[in-house]
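Why this split exists: single-chain examples teach little about how molecules sit against one another. For that reason, every record in the complexes split bundles all components of an assembly together and asks for one structure covering all of them. Below is a record exactly as it appears in the raw files.
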Amino acid sequence: MGKPMTMNMIPFVDLESQRRRLAGRIEQALLRVVDSGRFILGEEVQRFEAALAQFGGARHAIGCANGTDALALVLMAWGVGPGDAVFVPSFTFTATSEAVARLGASPVFVDIDPVSYTLDPAALGVQIAAVAREGRLRARAIVAVDLFGQPANYPLLAQIARAHGLKLIADSAQGFGCTLDNAQPLHWADATTTSFFPAKPLGCYGDGGAVLTQSDEDAAVIRSLAQHGQGAARYTHVRIGLNSRLDAMQAAILSEKLSIFREEIAERQQVAQGYTQRLGRDVATPQICRGGVSTWAQYTIEHADRDGLAAALQAQGVPTAVYYAAPTHVQPAYAGFRRAEEALTVTEAAARRVLSLPMSAYVCASVQDRIAETIAGFCANQRHRVAA
Ligand SMILES: Cc1ncc(COP(=O)(O)O)c(C=O)c1O
C-alpha cells in the first residue's frame, strides 16, 4: 500500500503514483538485475538503449552516468576545448554551461525568447557576430535547451548553425520526448542529450543520462569516451575519456518507465490544460509554440510578486520551485565568462517572475482546484490592496 495522502501533502513530482501504476514492475526489474549478477553495462543497458533509440528516432542511443556527462561527451567527441566558444542560454540549469567550461571552452550566453524561454535565434545571431568581431574565440557549437519541456526553435537554430558551420546540440534533459511538427529535436540537431534525474519527465531512481545521434562515427567515439577511451579491445585505450556508464539497475527501471512514457506525455498535456483553464485569468500561464508538444517538465507561471505567491501556496501545503532565480551568467563561477556584449534582459526579467507548480502525469483535478483557489485568492487580495 502507498502512503496515505492527506490534504496537506501535495508532492511536487508524484513518483509514488507512477510506481503504483507500474504495479510491481520496478521491483521485478531490480530483482532481474540482482539475479543476473550483471551490474555494469550488459543486457539491461543494451535493451534500454535500443528502446530509447527507437523512441527517439535515432540510429544510436548511448547511456551514460548523467545528463551533464552526456553534454560533455558530445562536446569531447567533437574536440571542443580551450579557445572555443559554445553558445548557450543562461536561463537553464548550470550543467549546460558547466559541460562547456569543464572542457576549457567558453560558454557564450545568449538571451531567450520571453514566451518560450528557449534560445532566441535573433540574439544568437548577435552573439555569433560579436564573437567573430572580437576574434578571440573560435565559434564551434550551439546548445539549445528544451526548457521546462518545450522544444527550442530548431528550424531557425539549425539554419543559423549551418550558415556558420556550427554544431547543434539539443539539451533535452527537461524536454526529452518533446516534438515540433511531430519531429523530435534530433531531426534538426547533431545530437540530443538527456538526463534521467528522478524528477525529469523520463527519470530513473538515481543518476543517469544518454546521448542520441544519427552519426555512426560520433556514436563510436562517444561510447569509447564514456569507457575510459577504450579501443577495439578491452584494456586498450585510444583516447583520454572518462568513466560514465548507465547503471544496469537504472536501465532496468528506465525500460519499465519508457513503456508508459508516451501515455504519460499525453496525460501531462491534460494536466497542463487543466492548469491553464483554471489559472489563465489570474496569472501569466505558459504558451507552447505553434506545432510544439511539450513534455511539461515544469508548469511555470509568471507573477510580479512571485515570492508572495509562493509563500501563499506554501501556507496551503502546495510546494513550488523557482527555476531559475539566479541564471548562470550571474553565478560567481561564471564571472570570468561574462562579456560586455551580452544583453540578457529577457533572462533577467524571467528570473524575477517565474514560479513552477507541482507537475507530473498524476496531478488530479481536486489538487488543481485547490492550487487555483489559492492563486485566485492571492490575486484578489492584491487587487483589493491596490484599489484601497
Ligand atoms: C537543462 C539541463 N541540462 C542538463 C542537466 C544535467 O543533468 P544531470 O543532473 O543528470 O547531470 C539538467 C538537469 O537538471 C538540466 O535541467
